[in-house]
Amino acid sequence: MEQKTNIIELKHITKTYKDGFSAVSDLSLEVKKGEFITFLGPSGCGKTTTLRMIAGFDIPTEGDILLNGTSITELPPNERPINTVFQRYALFPHMNIYENIAFGLRQKKMPENTIVKKVKKVLELVDLEGFEKRSIDTLSGGQQQRVAIARAVVNEPQILLLDEPLGALDLKMRKEMQLELKEMHRELGITFIYVTHDQEEALTMSDKIVVMAEGKMQQIGTPEDIYNEPANAFVADFIGDSNIFNGIMTGKLKARFCGGEFACVDDFEEGTHITAVVRPEDVVLTEPGQGKIRGIVTSVIFKGMHYEITVESGKNEIIAQSVNSAAAGDRVGIYVEPDNIHIMLAEDHTNIFAAEINRNYELEYNGKVLDVQLTDLIKGSRLTEDGTLLDGNGLELDRNKLRIKISIKPTDIELTDEQEEGLVQGYISNLIYKGDHYSYVIHTDLEQDFVVNDEYLWNMEDQVGLLMPVDKMVFTVKK
Amino acid sequence: MQKKILSRKSLGIPYMIFLVLFVMAPLFVLIYYAFTNGQGEITIQNLTGFFSDPNTLGTLCYSFGIAAVTTAVCLLLAYPVAYVLATSHLKEKSVILLLFIMPMWINFSLRITALKELLTWLEGNLAYHPFLNTVIGMTYDFLPFMILPIYTTISKLDGALLEAARDLGAGELQAFLKVTLPLSIPGIISGVSMVFLPAMTNYVVLDMLYNSTYIMGSLIGSYFASYNWHGGSMIALILLGIVCLFTLLTRGAEEETARGGVLL
Amino acid sequence: MTKKIWRSMVIVLVLLFLYLPILILSVYSFTDAANIGAIRGFSFHNYVTLFTTPELVKMILGTVVLALGSAFLASILGTMGAIGAFYSKKGMASAIHTMNQVPVVNADVVTGFSICILLVVVLGVSKDTFIPLVAGHVTLCAPFVFLSVIPKLKQMDSSIYEAALDLGATPGTALVKIVIPQIFPGIVSGFALAVTLSLDDYFVATYTKPATFDTISTYVVNATKGAQTTIKTALWALSTVIFLLVVLFTIVMNIRAGKNVQERNGAGQ
Question: What local confidence, expressed as pLDDT, does residue B5 receive?
């Protein structure tokens, strides 16, 4: 197969701001000529910063950017053969459409008759023939978007950067423009680098997707790869709907998660901590006795093409998609084809569990109050005398809408015989010797698995209490 | 890239230098002069002199009096005008508003001249009512500065608030007192600060209306006329102190009301 | 109904208070009268005096030239300052903002007197060079230009500057072709404000002007103290002329603004 040349290469790019925040860290990437590549990730994941470094608006603190093999890391944006389609179009409001599109050509001192021809041609490309004299504020959002694209491509850039270009459009318009952009990419044959937080958009349009989170690349691959073989729990969660469980390998091609033992096709050593991902469309609901695990249907939502059914099994929640309806309260069994279970190594055995906020605004887990002030967790918040919680801006926070997640490392949990002293109780469902300590999996009475490292030996099926010091807990608050 | 970011910022340098030269430096010189005497010795005599002389203290009080009365009269006239204008649905609203602004574009000395001629005709001799004439003159000069901020605040009020008040059973007067008036306080405060300070210092209006009494500004004028830079600087410094105090007070109040507005 | 009458009454009465003196003076400026009250024959002689007395003509022209000149300088300085402060780091920006606020809140007497002390008394610059006067008026006006440009910069979509760079413009070109046109309305209104401030100023001029030079304000204030009737009534004519100019200017601006709105609406349909 012919190897296409790399048009742009990012080499260990890091962007750190003065306050120490790294928007992008150690990102390396190669983009082939003519590719449609998409940076996908939630807001704040560093995708826009990466784009801005390619455009030249930001300079990486470390690393190198190569264009056709030559470094352009510090080249100012006006000297790069790269053009950008901006998020909110950034059309010049005091110029008409012709002047907007001609702007880049004028900077190159092109003769006016050439400019006229080029503008006419590019307006045909974006279906805006004859719009030359119109002013910007007479255009609809979709039309402005087309002008912004025309203004960029008229310069015949080697790379076109698109920063969430469809973000401001309504759904119908967005779908139309997605197809048109794809078409335009084929017609022009230039490299497109696209930024979006919309996974569907990324899957529809791209040749290749780069999934980013917290400034780091999580996975790179074709849309099919990313959807079918997510590299980690984050990617699985971000792309499409997923059920994600923590678990452990219990034998050859056997994994235990979600309170049941499942056959799978991924081969890991017995005792390995894993993350299992199951797509909702792969969850099969059966008669109560026939599945691997049992559960109770808690909600059913009709989604047009299918029903979205939520099943509660112990403390786990499983989302299934089915063409057959069910009723809340139904007892069901759950089965998943081995092929449809995606097993990946758990990167980090950190235990994560959700705490509740009780009426007195105290944190509660397993009916026990944790010795921590809610106001310390939410920056700037305070409790008023009449018992409401206000945030830093003085707005009331609804305790039912706050989600507090607690994470704690396996080494920070201690096991005890005095079960009632533990924050939660359970039995040891698995143990492995790791050289200098044992790694246990404790299946708690709340049907959740905790990973605990301890140097003392306990036996399988031992009933234990889990001691978790509050000062070792990390709290994350979601509103 | 670094260089060009610098070039955008560096556009501010000339203005920065200008401000240091013509705003900050004069103030420092003013402070220096206020605390020295003709021989260049450091002294607080100018300060103690001001506060021990019954004449200058009287002037300070008279200035406060004039300013307070003028501000009150302006407020009493401006609020109804601003309120009526802001709440009216007239098409020509902007034109009427313009009519209230237009006088500001006519030279104040000519406007005061006009007022003076009219008052002379009405009163015969201006010297009979110096205080009254001064208040009329200053009101005449500063009234637009009170109308504008109040008008802006009231017209920005969310109409739904008033409807909500009525919906909850408040009468028209109640709704005004409990909703419109409190929410227009920021406008009143900025109007007051735009009238009160000039009224303490604008001694030309007094001069032109034959009021021979001094206000704070006149003191600077008289020291200037007698080349007493040190005395004049002290008065200027005291005025500056009053300005600062007033600005701090009104800013605090504005923030307070702004917060109150959000909470309401 | 009575409420409506009350509401109109408020407006009409206050407008009368503001305009009656000027209007009465305008009427009398077309007569021989030296005081309001006794109506005499119709006459243009005040206007003849106004435009033929060299002293008056020089004073009017001087005021206008000073206003336009210092407003021009103030607009350049204030605009550059606003752009600089807007793109500067927080510390630098707030330093400029704070210093800019000083002449805005300060009493004009203090501004004028302090500049006089520094330039004339300390540095020994002669008032006859006009330097103190111009410096004073620019100091008075530039902060207001700054304040009218800053909001325009804030309203501007910050990515259009980057878009210009992206399309190959140098930073200088991007500033001139993209940023300046965007903030131009702010510069114009700042300039207009600067002109009216300079025209209306009395205090800064008093403390910094050459002895032989007068602005309208300083001239009128001195003239009212004197008893020269011809000059006094000629100033009535000046007041009328300025009043008419302001009215004319307002009408023209209003019509133009109306036209712009109409055009935009028309094009939008």
Answer: 47
